[in-house]
TrEMBL record:
Residues 43-135 form the Ig-like domain. PANTHER family: DEFECTIVE PROBOSCIS EXTENSION RESPONSE 9, ISOFORM A (PTHR23279:SF36), DEFECTIVE PROBOSCIS EXTENSION RESPONSE DPR -RELATED (PTHR23279). Pfam families: Ig_3. This is Ig-like domain-containing protein. GO terms for biological process: synapse organization. The lineage of its organism: Eukaryota, Metazoa, Ecdysozoa, Arthropoda, Hexapoda. One of its GO terms (cellular component) is neuron projection membrane. It comes from Allacma fusca.
Amino acid sequence: MKVLIIKVFNGRTILEKRTVCGEIKGGRKILDKICTTKGHMEPVTEVVGGPELYIDRGSTINLTCTVKYSPEPPSYIIWNHNNAIISYNSPRGGVSVLTEKGETTTSYLLIQQAKPSDSGRYSCSPSNAAPHSIIVHVLQGELPAAMQTGGQMPQQIPLSFCLLVSVILTYVTS
């Protein structure tokens, strides 16, 4: 079955004709398995839990990247933080990667004792597929923006209820 795929990349719209060789799913991921018009599957990269992740300072950041539908596992996966390659031997310490190759290749990036400087865009870049990113926010006790009230006042207690409680307290204490 041929489909027309519309992608938006850096503000540009790209139209592609493709052959679907697997399932079609609804929601955010419209096409899960996609083939080129020659019938070869394209690898799909995903950093699980995105597009944004909120984590408390001092916690361990655990990012999981999957590469699916690849004819062979990627020969390497590079993790980036704010467009810089992450060094696993950096003076910061506490950074490690574990990669399991297979039909679905999974790479785990672990960063211990998260600091505010660890906030930013993390990208997983396999050797044989397009990269995928997630934005990480390291919180210092504050609520993420999605959980804040947006400046709304808390619900006020009706005056009649306050008067009732006042009358009851006056009655009980006399």
